[in-house]
Design a protein that fits this description.
Strand order of the largest sheet of chain A: 2-1-5-4-3
Main location (chain B): endoplasmic reticulum
CATH architecture of chain B: 2-Layer Sandwich
Radius of gyration of chain A: 15 Å
Protein name (chain B): Trafficking protein particle complex subunit
Number of helices of chain A: 3
Number of strands of chain B: 4
CATH class of chain A: Alpha Beta
Subunit structure (chain B): Part of the multisubunit TRAPP (transport protein particle) complex.
Distance between the termini of chain A: 8 Å
Shape of chain B: globular
Oligomer: heterodimer
Shape of chain A: globular
Number of strands of chain A: 5
Biased composition (Low complexity) (chain B): 1-22
Largest interface: A-B, 11 and 16 residues
Pfam family, one (chain B): TRAPP
Strand order of the largest sheet of chain B: 1-2-4-3
Distance between the termini of chain B: 68 Å
Chain lengths: 133, 216
């Protein structure tokens, strides 16, 4: 079960947020921004305090009720997927989300880099991907 | 007397980069052959990556968008860009044809666009070629999934825009240079299962239909 997807730009701003499960509590749009910014900070701290040099920072956060998987691209964009704790094979899904992003967001002339994502085809692709997963 | 060294030829080691094949074609083309030496009629293995094309077209739209006022102006600009491609495509396609000829009838030039042009540009035929039921002088060529705009999502405030205005420009140039002057526009006409279906609307000038009438 996939709960939600967050895409955070390299400056820590939330550029995309979408819930896929019904039972999730809705937050105000400001709260989502704060959440994204907080995670961005936590990610920066974890990569600094790691005992191993050049750590990529937090990758998985497992809790009793959810699991959060973070992948960072080479350009510093972070994809966060929140799933149920038992969910397997999230890496494959992350890759497919990144695939959709690089096709329908980056190749869209009406998208400005680092700005909120508004692309109908990206939305439709995600809906299809999550319903199949 | 002028100094002859002022007209010195470029030294042989300053090879012009634009004529040597780029690394992107590695594995598909013989790298020692420059673009200009390749056979014009051999299209196999000379396909362009869709990603590269999409990024280039995306930049072209962003470039055009900075220099226009309004949607209609943007479509006109894209049409102009396509026009330059169309002029060259007609020459190239006729050259590649096994038994090339000059089309003189409306239907045969439309069929040429529907088949030869679409195959030359996109590797497939267009999905339909229709005559308008309302107007004598209008014809429509439709593509269910236009490759060029595959990754483009037009924002709501520009919903009137169809980026295939570029293709309309290509078609207009071909018709113009084949002596079938026409106005060509692109419209989004979604049907079930094909939300991006695009219709290229061709409106011929009066003289074309008058001539067609004489040829009958």
């Amino acid at each position: 079960m996939i709960y939600s997807l967050y895409i955070i730009n390299k400056a820590g701003g939330l550029v995309y947020q979408r819930d896929f499960a019904e039972q999730l509590e809705k937050l105000s749009s400001n709260d989502y921004l704060v959440l994204a910014g907080t995670f961005h900070g936590v990610h920066a701290i974890t990569s600094k305090i790691s005992p191993v040099p050049s750590s990529s920072g937090i990758e998985v956060l497992e809790a009793e009720t959810f699991k959060l998987i973070c992948t960072q691209t080479l350009t510093g964009t972070k994809f966060l997927l929140v799933t149920d704790p038992q969910h397997q094979n999230v890496e494959v899904l992350q890759k497919k989300v990144y695939d959709l992003y690089s096709n329908f967001v980056m190749k869209n002339p009406f998208h400005t880099p680092e700005m909120p994502i508004r692309s109908d085809q990206f939305d439709a692709g995600l809906t299809k991907l999550i319903s199949e997963a | 007397m002028s100094d002859p060294s002022a007209y010195a030829y470029p030294s042989s080691n300053s090879a012009r980069l634009s004529t040597t094949s780029s690394v992107y074609t590695d594995g598909r083309q013989n790298r020692t052959k420059s673009l200009l030496e390749r056979n014009l009629n051999r299209t196999k293995g000379a396909e362009v990556s869709l990603s590269a094309l999409s990024f280039l077209f995306s930049e072209m739209i962003q470039y055009a968008q900075k220099r226009v006022n309004g949607i209609q102006d943007l479509e006109r600009k894209l049409n102009e860009l396509g026009y330059r491609v169309g002029l060259r495509m007609l020459e190239l396609l006729v050259w590649r044809d096994r038994n090339p000829k000059r089309e003189t009838r409306v239907l045969s030039i439309l069929y040429f666009i529907h088949t030869a042009l679409w195959k030359g540009l996109f590797g497939k035929q267009a999905d339909s070629l229709e005559k308008s039921t309302e107007n004598e002088d209008e014809f429509m060529i439709s593509d269910n999934e236009p490759i060029l705009t595959k990754y483009i999502s037009v924002p709501r405030e520009l919903s009137q825009l169809n980026c295939n205005a570029f293709i309309a420009g290509v078609v207009e140039a071909i018709l113009d240079s084949a002596q079938f002057p026409a106005r060509v526009t692109a419209h989004t006409v979604p049907i079930d299962g094909f939300p991006l279906r695009t219709t290229i609307l061709i409106k011929f000038d009066k003289e074309v239909l008058e001539r067609e009438e004489m040829l009958k």
